[in-house]
Amino acid sequence: MKANRKSRKAALRKVTEHLTGEFRVKQEIKIPEKVIIELISYNEETVIMAENKPLDELFEQYNDGRKNWINVDGLSDRTLIDQIAKKFDLHFLLIEDITNVDHQPKTDELEDHLFLTMKMFYRFDEEKIHYEHISFVLGKNYLLSFQEKEGDIFAPLRTRIKQENGIIRKRGTDYLLYRLVDTIVDSYYSVLEKIGEQVEAVEENISKNPTVKDFQQIQKIRKEFIYLRRVVYPLREAINKIAKNENGFIDENNEKYFADVYDHVIHLIDSLDTYKDLTSTMMDLYMNTINYKMNEVMKLLTIITTIFIPLSFIAGIYGMNFDNMPELRWDNGYFGVLAIMGSIFILMIVYFRYKKWF
Amino acid sequence: MKANRKSRKAALRKVTEHLTGEFRVKQEIKIPEKVIIELISYNEETVIMAENKPLDELFEQYNDGRKNWINVDGLSDRTLIDQIAKKFDLHFLLIEDITNVDHQPKTDELEDHLFLTMKMFYRFDEEKIHYEHISFVLGKNYLLSFQEKEGDIFAPLRTRIKQENGIIRKRGTDYLLYRLVDTIVDSYYSVLEKIGEQVEAVEENISKNPTVKDFQQIQKIRKEFIYLRRVVYPLREAINKIAKNENGFIDENNEKYFADVYDHVIHLIDSLDTYKDLTSTMMDLYMNTINYKMNEVMKLLTIITTIFIPLSFIAGIYGMNFDNMPELRWDNGYFGVLAIMGSIFILMIVYFRYKKWF
Amino acid sequence: MKANRKSRKAALRKVTEHLTGEFRVKQEIKIPEKVIIELISYNEETVIMAENKPLDELFEQYNDGRKNWINVDGLSDRTLIDQIAKKFDLHFLLIEDITNVDHQPKTDELEDHLFLTMKMFYRFDEEKIHYEHISFVLGKNYLLSFQEKEGDIFAPLRTRIKQENGIIRKRGTDYLLYRLVDTIVDSYYSVLEKIGEQVEAVEENISKNPTVKDFQQIQKIRKEFIYLRRVVYPLREAINKIAKNENGFIDENNEKYFADVYDHVIHLIDSLDTYKDLTSTMMDLYMNTINYKMNEVMKLLTIITTIFIPLSFIAGIYGMNFDNMPELRWDNGYFGVLAIMGSIFILMIVYFRYKKWF
Amino acid sequence: MKANRKSRKAALRKVTEHLTGEFRVKQEIKIPEKVIIELISYNEETVIMAENKPLDELFEQYNDGRKNWINVDGLSDRTLIDQIAKKFDLHFLLIEDITNVDHQPKTDELEDHLFLTMKMFYRFDEEKIHYEHISFVLGKNYLLSFQEKEGDIFAPLRTRIKQENGIIRKRGTDYLLYRLVDTIVDSYYSVLEKIGEQVEAVEENISKNPTVKDFQQIQKIRKEFIYLRRVVYPLREAINKIAKNENGFIDENNEKYFADVYDHVIHLIDSLDTYKDLTSTMMDLYMNTINYKMNEVMKLLTIITTIFIPLSFIAGIYGMNFDNMPELRWDNGYFGVLAIMGSIFILMIVYFRYKKWF
Amino acid sequence: MKANRKSRKAALRKVTEHLTGEFRVKQEIKIPEKVIIELISYNEETVIMAENKPLDELFEQYNDGRKNWINVDGLSDRTLIDQIAKKFDLHFLLIEDITNVDHQPKTDELEDHLFLTMKMFYRFDEEKIHYEHISFVLGKNYLLSFQEKEGDIFAPLRTRIKQENGIIRKRGTDYLLYRLVDTIVDSYYSVLEKIGEQVEAVEENISKNPTVKDFQQIQKIRKEFIYLRRVVYPLREAINKIAKNENGFIDENNEKYFADVYDHVIHLIDSLDTYKDLTSTMMDLYMNTINYKMNEVMKLLTIITTIFIPLSFIAGIYGMNFDNMPELRWDNGYFGVLAIMGSIFILMIVYFRYKKWF
C-alpha cells in the first residue's frame, strides 16, 4: 500500500510542480534534516518551554491541566510523527494529510480533535514565492502544529505567550489556533501587495512602450493568481467550517474571531478576483497598444508608398527611350514635370491630413 | 498583536490602493485632526443637540428614555473611540471593523446591537471618485455612526429631525438608520449617473473617430465598474440581512423600508451589470472600428500598388537601353504605350469598383 | 425626504436613459395631462362601467359584493393616486413603486393585497421600442391597475367583460389579473418577433457583403437584448411568486393559469438567451468575413508585388547606362530579356496557382 | 381570448422559425389533413387494435379494466381533440400545450394524470433536421400520445405489443410510456451522430486548407447545437420529475427505468456540452490557420520587397543620365555592379534563412 | 427492445469515438475472446483463489461466511454475465450499465447492493490514452468487479490479499472496494503527469519559436482535458454518494477512506481546471508571439520600403531623358545626388532608431 501511495505522491508532486514551476515557485532546499519539536505548556500563571529534547522527555512536560502547544518543524522523520500520532490518537489518513505537502487546504472535524491544513505563503524576492504546508490539530487542551520547513513566522506569538499579561495566556488553545491562522492569513496580504506592485509596474510599461517582456510578465502574474486562487479558495470553506463550530471545538466566545478570519479570507478572494479582472484588462490594453502601433506602421507604409509610387511612375515614363517623345524636347519639360510631381506630392499630403492619418 | 494587525492593515491598504489607484481614487487628505462627536437626543416632543463637547458631558446628555444618535466624524482618535466602545459595550473586533477603512460592507448581528459597515460614495469631478468608510451601530435606543471623514451628506436629515412634525421623530432609531442608509444608497445613483455620462461621451467619440485616448477612457470606466462592484455587491447581502430581521433589531413596521433599500441595491447591481455589458460592447465597437480603418488603409495601399506597379514595369521596359528595340523607333510608339497604360489604369479602376473596394 | 427621493429618481431616470437611450428607446411624450380613471364593477349577471367621473362618484359605484377593476391611466396626478391609496389602504412605499416608472418588475405580498409591477412592451417602428410602467394591486374583490400612459392594449378584455357569457365574469379578480398579465406577456413576443426579423436581415447582409453599418446594427440588436433581459429576467421571479401562491391571493383553481404564464416567461428568457448566442455567432461571422476580405486584399497585393518587382528589377538593370554592357549590343538582347520576363511571369502564376492563392 | 392566444402563437412560431430557420430546419409540409386516431387496448392475454374509426366507436373499445394506448397523429382537428379532452377530463391549458407545437419540453403532474411534452428528433439528410412536437398523458389505465405528424417511429413498439410474451403486455401504461420516451431519446443519439460526422469532416478540411465554406459550416453546426440544447436541456428537468415520482403515477418497480432514461438525457447534455467545447476549439483552429496563412503571405511579400527594392535602387542609380558618372565609363563597371547585386541577394537570402523565415 | 438498444449503443459509441477519436484514443483490440473469471475468497485466516474454472465450480467455492471478490475480465460473454447476474440478483438495467462501455461514471444504491461504474485510465505512449470501463457491485459479503479488458493494475492488491498480515484481510469487502477505487484514482494522476509534461514541452517551444505544430499540440492537449473532464467530473458525485453512505453499505470505520478518495477526486478536478486555465494562457502566449513576429515582419517591410522608395524616386528623376535638365550637366551633379541620397538614408535610419523600431 505504501508503494502505491508513494507513486501517487510522486505523480501528484510532479503535477503540482508543473502547475507552479513555470513561475519558479520551487521548494526551499533547506528542509531540516533533523525535525525540531517544541512544547509550550502554559496557563494564566506560568509558561514552560521545552525544545530539542527526546520525545519522551517532552511528553513528560506535557500537562493535561494546562494548555499545550506542540510545534513540529519538518516532516521528514516519520517515526517521530507516528509517535505523536499514537500519543494523540491521530488516524493514519490524517497523518497522510499532514505529511502530503501537496494537499489542498481543508478542515476535518474528527471525534476528539479538529484538523486544519493550509498553505503558508511569504515572498522573499521578485523571482520566487516561498510557501510551506502547515497542519493543525486542535484537541481539548492541546494544539499540534506541523510545519513543512523551519521558520520564524510564529516567533512574535511565542514572545507574546511568554508575557505574563497576554490575552493568549488567559484563553484556550482554540484562541491560540486563531492567532496562528490569523498570522498566516496576514502573510497572504503581503504576497498580494508584492504582486500588486508588479501589476502596477507592468501597467505603466505597457501604456508607454509595450514589449514582449511585458506580455510575459503579465502571463507570469496571471499564473501567480491562478496558483494563489488554488490555495486561497478552499481556505474559505475550511475556515467557515471552523467558524460555524457545529461540533463545539471552539469556545463560544472565540467564534467571532474565526468569523473575523473568515471575513479576511473573503476579502482576499474578492481582491484576487478583482486583480484577475485587472490582468485581463491589462491584456486588452497590451493587445490594443500593439495593434495601435501596427496600425501606425501600416499607415506610414501606405503613406510613403501611395505618395512615391505614382511619382516614380511619372519619372519612369520620361525615362523611356522612345525616339519620338515631344515632351522631352520641350525647353521647360523637365521643370513642368517637376512642378506636376510637386503638386501631386502636396495634394497627397493634404489628402492624408484631411483623413487625419498623421 | 497590534503590530501584527498594523502590518496587515498596511498591506491591505496598499492592495486597495493598487486596485483603485489607477483611476485616481485617492483618499481625501482632509482627514480631520480632531474627531468631531455630535449627539442628537430626540423624542416626539423635544430635540437636544450637543456637539464639540468632551465625551463625559456628551454622555450626560445621553438619555435611555429617548432616542439618541451619536455621530462620530473621523476615526483617528482611538482613545475616544475606545471610550465609546466601553460605554456601549462594543467588542474589540467590531472596533477593528469600524476603524479599518478598507473593510468590505457587511452586517453583523451581535447580542444587543446590530452592526453595519459600508462605503459612502460621491463624485466631485471627472478625475476622482471620493468615498469614505462609514459604520453604524444600532442599539435599543441609540444609533452610533462612525464616518471616516467630515462631511455634510447627512445635513438634510439633521434639519428634518429638528422639525417638530417629522416622521423621524415619531419612530425609533431603526427608522433613522434606514434614512441614513437610504441617503447613502442614493449617492451611488449620482455616481452611476456621472459614469453613465462618460460612457455616452466615449461611445460617441468611438463611433466617429476612435483614438487611443478613447480606449484608455473605456479601460478607466471598466476599472471604475470593477471597483464599484466590489463596493456594491457585498451590500446586497448586508442589507438583506437587516431586512430579514431575524433577531428583531428592526421594528416590524419598519422592515418594509429596508426591503425597499434592498430593492434599490438590487437595481444598482443590475444597472452595474448592464453597464458592464455595455462597456464590453463598446470595446468590440472600438476594436472593430480600428480594424475597419486598418482595412481601409490596406485597401488603399493595395489599390495604389496594384495599379502603378505594372505601369511602372512597362515604363521600365522602354527605359532599357538595348540597341535593337524596334518599338522605340516607331513614330507613335510613345503614344501607343501611353494608350496601353491608360487602358490598364482604367481596367484596374473598373475592376476595383466592381469588387466594391471604393 | 421628498427632495431626497426626487434627486434619486432624477439620477435613476438618467441612468435608465443612458442604458437605453443609445438605441433610441425614449419615452413617448403623450403622457396624459389629465389622469383617466375607470371603474368596471361586474359579477356574473351585470356589468357597471364608470369613467371620467370625480373619484367620489366612482367610489360610490364601487361595490364590495361584486368584482371591481379600477384602471388608472397616467401617474402624474399624485393627489388622486394618494386618494386611491387611502381608500385601499396602500402603503406609502407601494405608491412610490407605482409612480417610479424605472422600477424593476417585482411581486410583493402584503397583508391584504398582492402587488405586481412590470413593464409593458410593444414596438411601432424600426427605430423605437415603446414601453410603459404598469402596476397591479390585487385585493379581495378588487383589482387596481396603474398604467404610465394611455393605451388600448386592454381594450379587447373590456369588450370581453361586457359579454354576458365570458369566463371572466364568472371568475374572481385574480383571473382578471391573469388575463391582463397574459396580454402583456404576449406583447413581448411581438417585440421579439420584430427583433428576430432584424437579426435575419443583418445576417443575410453579413454573409454577402458586410459593412460597418451591419456591425452597428448588430451592436444595436445586442443592446436591445441587454435591455429586454433587464425587463424580462426579474419577471420570472415575480410571476413565480404569484404562481406559488403561498399567501392564498389566488384562487386554487386559477393557480395553473399563472403557472402557464410562468412557462411563457421561461420560454421568453430561453429565446432571449438563444438570440444572444446567435448575435455572438453573428459577430464571429462578421469578424471572420472582414478578416477573410482583408486576407484576399493582402493576397492580391502580394501577388502583384511578387510578380512585378523582380521584373521591374530586370528592366532596371538594362536601363543602366554603363558603356560596357555587352547584352545591350546583342541583336536579340531585347527579345531575349522579354522572353525571360515572360517565363518568370508564367512561373510565378503557376506557383501561386499551385499554392491555391487564386 | 382565442384571438389573443392566436396572435401570440403566430409570433411565437415566427420566433422559433427565426431561431431555427437559418439552418433550414423547416416543418415538414405533410401535416396530415385528416387526424388519425388509433386505440390499442391490451392486457397480458389479449390485444385489441382499432384505427380509422369514428371516435365514439373507438371509445366503445376502450376498456377501463385493460391498458389502453390512444395515439393521435396530427393536431389539426381541434374538435376531435376537444372530445378526447372531455372524455379524459383534460384541462383547457393542457390542450393548449398539446397543440402549441413550439412549447418547450416539460412535465406537469395534475390531479389524475401525468402530462409530458417533448420534441422528437430525427435527421434525413445533410440539409434538414426534421422534428415534431409530441405530448403524452398518462392516466391510471390509459396512455394518450399526441404526435404533430404522422410517423412510424413507434412501429416496432406496436409490433412488440402484439407479441404474446412481450414484457410490455405484462406491465402497466407507465412502462409503455417509458418505452416510448426511450425510443425518442434514442433518436437524439442518431442526430448527434450525424452532427458528429459533420464536425469530423469540417475539422479535417480546416487542418488542410480552410475556406470560408468551412467557417460557414462551423457556424451552421454551432447553431444546430444551440437549437439542440434548447430542446434537450428542459428535458432533463421533465424526465427527472417523472423519475422522482412524487405523486405515484409510476409503479415503483418501473421508477428505475425512468432513472435510466434520465441517465441518458444527462449523457446527451454532457455530449452536447463537449461538442460545444469542440466547436469553439475548431473556431480557434480555423482562425489560427487563417492567421498563419496570412502570416506566410506577409512574409513572402516582405522577402520579395526587401530583396528587390534595394537592388532596383542600385539599378536606378546607374540609370541616371549625369554626364559625369565615372563608374559608367569603367570597363568592368557593369560586371562589378552585377557582382554587388548578387552579393546583396545572397546576403539577404542567408539573413532570412537565419531568421527562419522560409 | 434489444434491437432498439443496440442501435442506440452503436450511435452512442460513434458519438464517443468522435469526441475522443481526434486524439487517437482508440480501444485496445486485445479484447479477450474468452472471459476470465476469478474468485478470491478470504477471511482473516485463509485465502482461496480460483480461476479459469467453469462458473458452477467457482460458485461452489463461494462462501457467504467469508469475503468474496469475483473479478470478471472481459464483457463479451453475455451468457456468463447473465448467470452471475442471476446468482447475485442483479437487475437487467444494471447489467446494461456494466456492459455499456460508454456509460458515464455513477453510483447507484440498490436494495441489497451498491453499484459503481467508472473509467480506468493509464497512458502508454505519447500517442494514445488507453482506458477501460470498469464496474463494481458491492454486496454484503462479496465484491464483483467487471473489467472491459484484461489488465494487471490490480495485481499488487492480489498479492497483498495473499499476505497473512495484510489489513485487507481483516476488513470487509467495502475496504477492498476502497483499495481498488484508490488504485484507479491513482492511475489518473500518472495520466495528468504525462499531460503536464507535454504542456511544459509545448510552452517552452512556444516561447522560443512557435510553429503551427505547437498550436496543434495545444489543441490536442485541450481536447485531452475536455475528455478527462468528462470522465472525472461525474466521478465526484459518484464517490461522494458512497462516502455519504446513507444506506449503510460501507462500514462506519471505512467511511473516512472514501472521504479521502473524494478529496483526491476534488484535487484532480481542481488540477484539471488549473491546467485548463494554463492552456488558455498558452493559447494567448502563442497568439501573441505570432502577432509579435508578424509585427516585426511588417516593421521590416515598412523600413525597407520607406527608405528605398524615396531614394529610387530620386534616381528615377535623374533617369529621365529631358533634353534640358541642367543638373545632369553639372560636374558634381552625380556626387551631389549621391550625397543627398546618403543624407536621406541616414536621416531615415535615425528616425526609425528614435521611434525604437529596431
Features:
homopentamer; 358 residues; alpha+beta; seven-stranded mixed β-sheet; 11 helices; 14% strand
Rg result of chain A: 34 Å
Helical residue percent of chain A? Answer: 55-70%
Total helical elements of chain A: 11
How many E-type strands of chain A?
A: 7
Termini separation of chain A comes to 73 Å
| Amount of beta strand of chain A | 5-15%
Basic shape of chain A: rod-shaped
Would you tell me the overall average pLDDT of chain A? 83
Summarize the structure.
Chain A has about 350 residues and is an alpha+beta fold. Helices cover about 60% and strands about 15% of the residues of chain A.
Explain this structure to me?
The structure is a homopentamer of 358-residue chains. Chain A has helices spanning 2-21, 55-61, 78-88, 92-99, 155-162, 167-170, 173-208, 212-244, 255-317, 326-329, 333-354, and strands spanning 36-42, 47-51, 67-73, 106-109, 114-123, 129-138, 142-147. With 358 residues, chain A is an alpha+beta fold. Chain A has 11 helices and 7 strands. The first copy, chain A, has a 7-stranded mixed β-sheet with strand order 2-1-3-7-6-5-4, with helices on both faces. Chains in contact: A-B, A-E, B-C, C-D, D-E. Chains C and D meet through helix 7 and helix 9 of C and helix 1, helix 8, helix 9, helix 10 and helix 11 of D.
Write the layout of secondary structure elements.
The structure is a homopentamer of 358-residue chains.
Chain A (H helix, E strand, L loop, with lengths): L1 H20 L14 E7 L4 E5 L3 H7 L5 E7 L4 H11 L3 H8 L6 E4 L4 E10 L5 E10 L3 E6 L7 H8 L4 H4 L2 H36 L3 H33 L10 H63 L8 H4 L3 H22 L4
Parallel strand pairs in A: 3-7
Antiparallel strand pairs in A: 1-2, 1-3, 4-5, 5-6, 6-7
Helix pairs in contact in A: 7-8, 7-9, 8-9, 9-11
